[in-house]
Amino acid sequence: MALRHAMARYLHENKDTLVVELEKVMQEATPVYESLAPDIMADVRQSFRDFVQLYTDYFDAEALPAKFLRSLATDIGRKRAAQGMRLEDVIRGFDVGETLVWEKVGEALLPDGYSAGAWLQLANQRDQFSKAVRHYIRQAYLTEEETSAQRQLQEFRALSSLGRAIVSTVDLEKVLRQILEVATSLMQSRMGSIMLLDTSRKYLEPVTDMGLARSWVQREKIPVENSLSGVAIKRNEYVLAREDELAGFDLPRPAAGRRIRSALSIPITVDEEPIGVIELYETTPRTYTDLDITMLTTFGPQAGVAIKNARLFREERRRRRQAIILTEVATAVSEARDLDELLESVCEKTAQALGVDRCSLFFYEPEAKALTFMAGYGRSTLQVWLLNQFHIPMTELGEATARALRTREPVLANQVSEELSLESRIFRGPGVRSYLQVPLVTKDDLIGLMSLEMTTEETGFTEEDQALAESIARQAAVAIQNRRLQEKLFEQQLTIKNAEVNENLYRERETSDAVLKATPDAVLVVDRDYRVVLTNPAAEFLTGWSQEDARGRGCHEILYGSANAPGVCPGPECPINRMFAGESVAYAEDEVVTRSGRRIPVGATFAAIASPGGKVDNVVAVYRDISEQKELEKFALMQREMDIASGIQTSLLPRESLTIDGLSVNARQQQARNVGGDWFDYWTTGDQVYLVIGDASGQGVGAALFASMAMSALRVEAREHEEIIEVMEHVNRSLYMGNRSDSFVTVFFGILDLGTMTLSYSNAGHEEPLCIGVAERVESLSSSARSLMGIFARANLDVSDRKLKSGDRLVLFTDGVIDAPSSKGKLFGLKRLNRFVTANRDRPPDEFIDLLINNVLEYCNGEPRDDMTVVVCDIP
């Protein structure tokens, strides 16, 4: 027994030295070792360390479970088979390493005079250990070989199926999806993506993915320079990165929420030129065999062939579609009900026929010698709104546009340079690579301009495109001119009718005024210039603007305190603006800024007053103050959160005090108004008493949940491990892996051996417990290493021991006790607590705890800022 423990102790103290010597011996005894790849060599080196640790545990334990031995040996056998090492080299490596260990053990321990029987017993244990390791390594190695053979067959079948799919379909998305599915299936990966370079070759566009978070996949473009893909594309070869090698790269997020720790990027090529990548991701460090890499790199050229075929098919389909759309343009022009619809149809059909990104129509105004935007395709609502605010004088036109209007011939600009003209700064869309300006001419009269824009470099305007655009422009110019003449006549007739309607509206206002005055909600009537034409007394009370002052002012000045120009609404998403645009806004919540600057939440409804022609002349806006409603909703939400947090805390805590062999443990928690993350726990196992007190950072539901996680993890790990430091390290790892908000916990964890009355404990950043004995001297249970838990991957902790005497009292507490402030802001403090403990040490534990908490509550005027938790353990 003593020899076995001496051997375990020697191995533990000389682990690092043995690992270095093992590597030297392996290099001499196994020639293949020096030819291993760096990542495989690193894995083998880690196996040396694990082997020495297993040896240590094996000879130190009374009976080490076979599953630990089998797990390590099986893992080594499986990995070495996958890494291509021969079985005999693997076994030889183990034998050489084991022999070295025993030589070193003999040199160190033979002089200590252990009996021959002890050495014989140790040798028998060595034989059992060695036979078991060889058996498990050989078994795992052969199983992995068989699995690898089956996998190779599966890979070849998958490649064959993939090849047939590529030549049998031109559906690019379908083929790329199948490529990704085959790659992830063969590599047993759950995550992957295929991304293609855009025309600038500066960004990657996700095409298909598997197992990734939607927020990442939905990104339109990913910068090449910040990605692992960029390295693979630059080198035109696969790149594998793990752990710290991934730092600084723009990586996707797994749908499951874990962190990517391994990524493999494989270029997709067409004629040996990279056009994108296939990437596989793992949440654990991953190695790939040479066969894996060979198989995966064949996907790159195959994907390139699929993309090339699909693009050729799309080009042919586009040309055929053009002929059809030419007919549709003529039909749309003849069927348009008004000028606006005609202009929109011409823009849309022209853009589709020519495959351009944007098509815009401008009217030419001879008197002002300027262009005015009328309709556009491929522009956002904000761009359209901005274009409608400007007219372009002929002097502010770009060179190509001015020449097209002057010569009345189409002008192509394939190289877009920076211009200082108003057209370039305002009217030209973003990202334009080339554009075609086609004048609209009827009977030698210039009536406008058609502007066609492309944002990609790989496509441009061909001669066929220019001829087609000119033909459409001639047809559109005639139709636009005829429709403008028709609408001018119609507007003259409509003006007469509008005059009659306005007279009737004026008469009806007298009746409406009486209704408005009696309405408790604020009412504003706004005209098309966004001016307030009518308000009621309730609006005066809400906004602070009198009815006289409000009338004629911009609605945004009255409602939000910001002036707006006549006929211009500062916000495209403004409900009033949307109503004038023809949208229906039933209800909206907003915030009104009063004349004095006070902000009032309101609920608003809107109604349009339209002319007989259907045009919205006025918008009626009705606002109701919902301040009280919002406060009630906020209070209800906060109250529910506090109820949930309080319930979580209460459910965590032991319900009864603990009494065993004369020893007693009592505790109480006083929750604050803002619930924190305090908890305590105690239980017994055999002749050991477990004491726990902790505090999670933050307040509310988040802190209560994190405290629950910590308490549950500690209970579980305490059942699994006997050593306190192992329990704390496992708990820290569990909390760190599950931490998504930089939260942390402080924990004091102690185990009291009733036989020896020795308290072994570890303190992770918690307040140091107090111990007072018969001599009435208060001492702290200090620790030298007190790292917080849950925020660092490895916690810096230690274990201390304290021999307790009969009559000792342990007092465990959280920071809510000593950090309670008085009305003057002075804290209760540790000194005041020490005086209380000394003065009341003879009180029963429950009375002691109640009196302490009542003293603290009285000190802070009954309003503690944080939870207060006190645990008292009395030694018999």
Written overview of the protein:
A 6-stranded antiparallel beta sheet has the order 3-2-1-6-5-4. A 6-stranded antiparallel beta sheet has the order 9-8-7-12-11-10, with helices on both faces. Strands 18-19-28-27-24-25 form a 6-stranded antiparallel beta sheet. The chain is 48% helix and 21% strand. β16 and β17 (616-625) form a beta hairpin. The model has no long low-confidence stretch (mean pLDDT 83). The chain is an alpha+beta fold and 876 residues long. The protein folds into 5 domains: 2-152, Globin-like (Orthogonal Bundle), CATH 1.10.490; 169-314, Beta-Lactamase; 357-488, Beta-Lactamase (2-Layer Sandwich); 515-625, 2-Layer Sandwich (Beta-Lactamase); 640-874, 4-Layer Sandwich (Phosphatase 2c, domain 1). The two termini are 36 Å apart.
